[in-house]
Design brief:
Blueprint: E1 28-36, E2 44-50, E3 64-68, E4 76-83, E5 85-94, E6 113-115, H1 128-131, E7 133-135, E8 139-144
Length: about 150
Amino acid sequence: MMFFEVALLALGTTLSAAPLGATTSAGTSPVSVVVTDLPSTKATLKLYFYNVKENFLKRGNYTMLKYVKPAGSKQITLPIDLPNGEWAVALTQDMNENDLVDRNFLGIPTEPYAFSNNVWPTMRAPEFDECKFKVNGAKVVTISMKK
């Protein structure tokens, strides 16, 4: 099973300006995804958002993909509106900027990666239920790239 899927299409970003604790009328909530301990202050970070358990980590089946440049920082914050419900995030940093998730012969990423809830299973890909978090009002999700 592959940990991440290659994707070239980035969906549009909606930045949230809603105050902390707010829920928008459209059934979405403001979420701030904070990624710490970035291995590179220059390489593009790709955040794959999933809200369908059966699609988690399957090729091209993410709900949303966001690209973020760290702009010289070891930490980024991505404000985003997400529909209320259960979500999980997988992320990778594209160290060689080839727009691919480079892997070894076993399919394991050779570039830095992480998951929401800072899940680090050994010998297998994580499951949606391990990585999921509930969105129903403003939320901050912090993910460390450091194992």
